[in-house]
Structure formats: C-alpha cells, structure tokens
Amino acid sequence: MSKLDRFLVTENLLHSCANINAISLDHYILDHRPILLREAIFDYGPIPFRFYNYWLEVDGFDKLVRDAWNDAPEDLRMFDEAIDKGNTPVEMVHKHLETLNKIHQVNNTHMSEVAQKAKIKWVVEG
After folding, report:
1. Structure confidence by residue, pLDDT tens digits, 48-60
2. Are 111 and 46 in contact (CB under 8 A)?
3. Contact (CB, 8 A) for 36 and 25
4. Which residues, other chains included, contact 39 with Cβ-Cβ below 8 Å and sequence gap of 6+?
5. Alpha-carbon distance 125 to 9, whole Å?
6. Among 18, 40, 52, 43, which Cα is nearest to 116's?
7. For residue range 103-117, what is the model confidence (pLDDT) as tens digits?
8. How far apart are CA 37 and CA 14, in angstroms?
C-alpha cells in the first residue's frame, strides 16, 4: 500500500464513533485505493432487566414478588366477570387496563430475554 492508501483518524472520532471500520476498495480509474469508512451500529433493544442477589436479602422482597405474580391472573378473572355482568365502574376498567399493561410488559421482557439468549447462542455456536 502506498501513502495514498491511508487516512488519519483523530482521537475525537474514535470516541464519538467507537464502532468504525475501514475497507480498502479496489482501484479502477484512480491510482489509489478508495477507503470506505463506516460505522457499524448494533441495536439489541432495551437493556434487559438485571436481578441483583442482594435483593433477596431485603425483608419481604420474596413475598412482594410472589404476591404480584399471583395477583395478576386473579385480578383479570375478577375484572372479566364484572365486565361480562355489565357492572363495570370506570375505576375498575382502568385497573383492568393497568393489569393488562403490566402483563404485556412482563411478556415483552420475557420475549426480549429469549431473543437475547438466542443471539448469544448464535454468536457462540454459529
């Protein structure tokens, strides 16, 4: 490679674009090789939920998780029965929607976790 086939990179560029790479293209008309500088952007979605073991040491944490997990289906059943009977105050409908949103968020988190594990498995196993 000749001196024409090189380029300079400043420290600021490396800090602002950490995932850049350069590809030297074939020369056709010119007497040098054009260099294609591009940034690879990886979007793995939202940062996954992290669980810290010290949370288990907090008094009542396990009961809080267990109660929240067990209450959601029971609340939905109660709301569905009230809706079927036609006895649905506005507050109950709002609580029903909030519970459905919580379940939707948990489902999205689970799907994100499954997708992340699949990506990791693909990277490791090919």
Report:
1. 777 777 777 888 8
2. no
3. yes
4. 17, 19, 20
5. 35
6. 43
7. 888 888 888 888 877
8. 12
